[in-house]
Amino acid sequence: MDLRAGDSWGMLACLCTVLWHLPAVPALNRTGDPGPGPSIQKTYDLTRYLEHQLRSLAGTYLNYLGPPFNEPDFNPPRLGAETLPRATVNLEVWRSLNDKLRLTQNYEAYSHLLCYLRGLNRQAATAELRRSLAHFCTSLQGLLGSIAGVMAALGYPLPQPLPGTEPAWAPGPAHSDFLQKMDDFWLLKELQTWLWRSAKDFNRLKKKMQPPAASVTLHLEAHGF
Amino acid sequence: MDVYSGWKQPSWMVDSKRMRMTLNLPWLLSALTLLHLTIQAHSLKRGAAQDLKCTTKNMHVWDCTWSASAGVSPGTVKEVCIKDRLNSCHRLESTNIKIAALSPGDHEVTINYLNGFQNKFTLNEKDVSLIPDTPESLNLSADFSTSTLHLRWNDRGSAFPYPSNATWEIKVLQNPSMEPVKLVSFNTTLSGQDIVHHWNWTSDLPLQCAPHSVGIRWYIDHHRFSGYKVWSDWSLLKNISWTPNSETNVFPQDKVILAGSDITFCCVSQTKVLSGQIGRTFCPLIHLYGENVAIRIQNISVSENSGTNVVFTTEDNVYGTVVFAGYPPDVPQKLNCETHDFKEIICSWNPGRPTGLVGPRNTDYTLSESISGKSVAFKRFETLTNESYRLAFQMLPGQEIHNFTLTGRNPLGHAESAIFINITERVVPHVPVSLRVKDINSTVVALSWHLPGNFAKINLLCQVQICKASSEQEVRNATIKGAEGSSYLVAVDKLNPYTLYTFRVRCSTETFWKWSKWSNEKRHLTMEAIPSRGPDTWREWSSDGKNLIIYWKPLPINEANGKILSYNVSCSSNEETQSLSEILDPQHKAEIQLEKNDYIISVVAKNSAGSSPPSKIASMEIPNDDILVEQAVGMGKRIFLSWHPDPNMTCDYVIKWCNSSRSEPCLMDWIKVPSNSTETIIESDQFQPGVRYNFYLYGCTNQGYQLLRSIIGYIEELAPIVAPNFTVEDTSADSILVKWEDIPVEELRGFLRGYLFYFQKGERDTPKTRTFETGHSDIKLKNITDISQKTLRIADLQGKTSYHLVLRAYTHGGLGPEKSMFVVTKENSVGLIIAILIPVAVAVIVGVVTSILCYRKREWIKETFYPDIPNPENCKALQFQKSICEGSSALKTLEMNPCTPNNVEVLESRSIVPKIEDTEIISPVAERPGECSEADPENHVVVSYCPPIIEEEISNPAADEAGGTSQVVYIDVQSMYQPQAKPEEEQGIDPGVVAGYKPQMRLPINSAVEDTTAEDEADKTAGYRPQANVNTWNLVSPDSPRSTDSNSEIVSFGSPCSINSRQFLIPPKDEDSPKSNGGGWSFTNFFQNKPND
C-alpha cells in the first residue's frame, strides 16, 4: 500500500509540474512569440537529414569519379580546393565562438558550398547523378534558409556577400580533370564535415535556448517513473 | 702507282657510305675507324704518302689537300699545276688548294716543290667527295599537349646546282646520355632556292617527362656529280625541356585516346614515387631519370563516364591525371528523314557502337543539307538513349529534294552518313486529333478530325477503323485532298441502326510512306430505325381453355434497330378485331379471353422510330390424333431432334418444350425452324440433368400449327435418388413374395431401366449383412428388366431363417439407393419334431448305460475318488503350542488399528532366526511373531504395519551378510523422501546436517544418549538399526528450535516410517523428550500407536 501511495504522489507531483510548465511549451503557447527554439530544432533536424542524404549522394558521386576516389582508404592531401570553406577548426577556437559568429560561419560556408554543388551539377554527365545533385542542392538551399531564419529570430544580420567573392567553379583550361575530381572529392568531404559541425553547433544552440524548466521536468520524470 | 693506289682510298669511303645506306650508325662508325686505320697502314708502307684528297661542299669549288712527301716540309710547295687548263698553275705554299670544279674526266695535277721535287696526280671528279655543310638554322619547338616536336630548318638550296636530291636524317634523343629514340630519314629536292622544311614527330612518352634533343644531317645527290656523296656532320642538338609547375605533375593530362591502344603516363616528381595505378590496377614503375617515373598501359579499356584515373602516389602527395579511352563515332546507322507536317524534317539515326566518351567529349552531330547549304547541330552533354538521336531541320518553302549528310565528331575522329530524299514521299502525318462523329441517318455518320500540318500539295490517304461492340472490325480507306492546318471530313455509311460503334482514324499520303498513329477512339451510337421484323410469337391456351396466352420473344438487337418501348397485340377474326392496350417492353406475354374460335393473333414491336411489321399466329391448332410419345436423351446441355420432312408444312416448324412436372399450360421456350429442315439441336441454359422435359414438334401450314410429335427426354440421365418402396406380401417356409411401387418421375431422374433385387441370409444388425458386397457368394441377385413387373416371388428359401432383402432401381444414369428389409421365413413343423425327438432319445440311452456301469464298479470308484480321511481332533501334537500362547498374559495380538492388518507378509527364512538370536540384535520395533516368548514384556512395542504401495524386497540370506533380516525401506511421511539405496554414498555427509533418518547400516551413534546394551552392541553390528539415534530425530523435527536454522535440503520432516508399516519409527522415549512436544507432531500422532494407548 505504501508503494502505491508513493506512486500516486509521484504522478500527482509530475502532473502538477507538467501543468505548471504548460505555458512554456512552445506548441501550446499561442499567445506569445515561440522564440527561436523550434526553428533551431528544425535546423538541427534538417542538418541530420542532410547528413543522411549526403551519405547516399557521396556514394553515388564517388563511384562516378571512379577509383581510387571511391576507395574507403583514399585520403589525399588537401592541396587543391583552396577556395572551399574549411570546416575543421581547433576545438578551443570553436568553443570560443559566440552564437552569432557560429551562425555566420555556417551561413557563409553553406552559401559557398551550394554554389560549388551547382557547378558540380552542371558537369555531371549522367542524368541520374544530376537528379541526385539537384535534389541535394534543394535540400541545402532549405538548410540555408533555415539558418537564415534562426539568425533572424535571434536578431543577427545576414552576412552580405562580398563583391567578387563568388566562387568560379566552372572548369577552366588550367584546371585539369584530375584536379577537378580532387576538388569534387574535397567538396563532398567538406560538406560532410560542415554538416557534422553544424549538427554540433545547432545542438549546442538548442540546449542553450531551451528554457530551464525543461530540465526540471526531465528530472521529475526520471524520479517519478 | 703510289698515286693511284692513294686515290683508291676514297672508293673505300664510298663503299662505306653506300653500306651506310642500309646499315645503322654504330656500324658506320666502326667502318670509318677501320678505314682510317687502313689508310694509316698504307702510308706507313709507302714510307711517305702524297695522297691528294678533294672534297666539295657545293660542287662548284673543290677543296683538295695532300700530304707532303717525306723530307719535304709543307712550306716548300712552289706551285700546283693542272695540265689541261689555262693558267693552270697556282702558286702557293701550303698543301691544300681550292680549285674550281673540273670537268668530268682525268686531270693531271702536278705539284712542284721549291727543292725541285715534283709530285704528279691524276684527278677525276669521281674521286671528289661531296660533303654538304652541317644543316643550320634549326628551329625546334614542342607542343606539350600533344607531345609533338616541330623541327624547322633551311635547306640552303640556292647554293647548290638544281635540281638535286637531298637526303635528311633526323635523330631524337630523349635524354642526352641515351641512344636516339627516333632516327628517321627522308628526301627532298633542292630547287635552287632556300626552302624551310618542317618535320613533326609525336612522342609516345609525354614530352614533359624528359628533356628531348634533336639533331639533323644530310647528303646531296646531283645527277651530274659523279663523285662520292658523303653525310654532313650532325648539327648541334636542339633541346626541348618542360618547366614544371606546381599543379600538374602527371602527363599526359586529360588525354582522349582510342580504346585498345597503348599509352605511357609519367609523373614528374622531386620526391620518390611509391606507386602508380590506373583505376584499381597498380602498374610497374619505369624509372626515367631523377625521380621521374612512368607507367605503360597496354590495350587500355573503355573508360567510365568520368574517365579513367591514373594516380601516382609519393610519400606526401597524390598526383594524377584522367584519361578518356573510347572510340571514334560509329557511322550513323538507320539515318531516316521524314516530315510530319511539311514544316520541319525530322532526321533520326542510331549512333551505333557507343563511343564510351561522354560530357564534353561526347559525339557532336551536324546535319547539313547540301542543296540549301543549311545545317543544324546536335550537341548533348549526357548520355542518351538511342531514340533520342534526332534533329529537326526547318524546311524551306518549295524545296522538295533534300540531300542530307549527318556527321558525327568526337576527339577521336568522325564518321558520316548521307541520305537523299524527296520529302513528299517521306510523310508521316501527326496523330489526327479532335475526332468527332455526327449522325446523318441511322446508317450513315460523318467523321471529322483535325490534322496539323501543311498538306496543301498532296492527297491524304486516311483509314477509318470501325469497331462494333461484338469486336467485329472493319477498316475503310478514304482519299482526301490535303489542306493546310485543316479539319477533314468523311462520311461513313452502311452502318447498323442503333449500334454502338468505335471509330478511330489514321492518315498517310497517297505516296505511302508510313501511317500516322491511330487517333483516340470515339464511341458513337447510331440512330434508331424501325424494327426489321415482328417478334417471334407463340400461344397457349390456359388450362381452363378460356384464355389464350400469347408469348413473344424480344427482338435481337440487330433486328430491333433501337430500344423496344412497347408491343401491340391484337386478335382478329372474320368478324372483329380486338386490340389490347400497349404492353411495355419487359413484358413478353399477354392473355386474352377468347372463345375457342379461329383468331389471328398479331404482335407488333415499337421503338422510337416506329412499329415493326406484324407477326401473326393462329389461335387454334390443327388436331392430330396419331401422336406417339417418344423418348430422347441429350448430351451436355443440348438435345438432338429430327423428323421426317412433311410437304404440307409450308411455313416453318416450331419446337416447344417444358418441364414435364409443371402444370399446364407448360411452356419453357420454343424455337422456330425453317420448313426445309428435318432436324435441329435444342440448346438452353435452363436444361438441367436429371429433369424430364416434354418436347413438342409443330408444323406450320396455312391453316395454323399442327402437333406432329411428342417427345419426352432428358438432357442427361441420372441415377434415381430414391429406392422403390417395397413390401413383403406373403411369407412361407421356403418363399417370400415381394411387391413394390413405382418411383415418382421427379425422383427417377431418368428413364427407368429395371430393378436389382438382392437377398441373402442375415440377421438385422449383423455387420455382415448391412451392406451387400458385389461378388459375395452368399448374395443372390435378380435383375428385373421388365419395368412393368411389380412383384417378385423368391423361392427355395430355408424355413425359419432371417433373410436380408434389398431392392434398387436403375436408369442409364446409374443405380439408385437401396431399400432393404429383413424377413424371417416360416417354420417347417415336421423337421422341428424330428429335431426334438432324436436328441431326447439319445440322452435317455446314455443315462441308462452310465447308471448301470457305475453301479457295477461302485467299490473301485470309492477307493479312487473318496478314500477315508483321518480326524484332526485326534492329533495330540498340536495341544502343546496352544497352551504356551494362551499362558502369556502380556502377549497381545496384532492390533488392527488403524490400518488394514498385515496384508504384507514379512517373510523370513528359517535359517535366519537362530542367527539373530545369537547376535542378540533385536529390533525394538520389528518384533517377529516367532520371538514373542523370549521378548521382555516392557520392551514390547505394539507394531501396526501400514502397508504402503512401495514394493517390498525380500533379502537374499546368502547375499546379505549383515544379518539377513527383511530389508525395509523407510519413507518420510511428508516429503515422501526415499532414502538412498547405497549406504556408502552417505558416508561423507555430516550427520549434523543430514539429520534425517539413517537407515540400517551406518547410523552414527551418539554415545551420550546410549543407555542400552543393545545399542552398544549395535556399534559393532552392521545389521538393521532403525531409530537407534534418538537425538538425530529430535534435532531436525520441524517444531524444534533448530529446525528453522537448518539449511539442509534433506531435512527430515517429522518421523520416518517403515514402508512396511505406517508406524512412525520413533522410539517410545520421544514422549519424554521435551524437544519433541510441539504442534508439528499433532498430525502424525494420528498415525502413531503409543504404548499407553
Your description of this structure?
The complex is a heterodimer of chains A (225) and B (1093). Chain A is an all-alpha fold and 225 residues long. Chain A has one domain: Growth Hormone, Chain: A (Up-down Bundle). Chain A is built from seven helices and no strands. Chain A has helices at 2-21, 37-65, 91-96, 99-123, 127-154, 177-209, 213-224. In chain A, helix 2 packs antiparallel against helix 6 (177-209). Chain A starts with a helix and ends with a helix. Residues 1-7, 22-32, 168-173 and 213-225 of chain A have low confidence and may be disordered. The termini of chain B are far apart. Chain B is built from 13 helices and 65 strands. In chain B, strands 42, 43, 44, 46, 47 and 48 form a six-stranded antiparallel sheet that branches. In chain B, strands 49, 50, 52, 53, 55 and 56 form a six-stranded mixed sheet that branches. In chain B, strands 5-2-1-8-15 form a five-stranded mixed sheet, covered by helices on one side. With 1093 residues, chain B is mostly beta strands. The chains are: A mainly alpha (225), B mainly beta (1093).
